[in-house]
Amino acid sequence: MGHARSHRRRDPVPGLGRCPRNQRRSNPCLRTKLIVDIQSKLPAHFRNTPCHEVLIGESGTRVFHLPGLGYLKVTTQTDYTLQPEKQRLEWLHGKLPVPEVLYFAEHDSQQMMLISEIPGIPSFMEPFKGHFEEQVIHLLAEGLRTIHQVDIRACPFDHRLDTLLDMARQNLAHPRPIANTRWRGRSVADLYAELMATRPIEDHQVFTHGDYCMPNILIAPETMTISGFIDWGHAGISDPYFDLALAARSIIRNFGEQWVSVFFEAYGLNEPVLRKISYYQLLDEFL
Question: Domain for residue 6, yes or no?
Answer without folding.
Answer: no
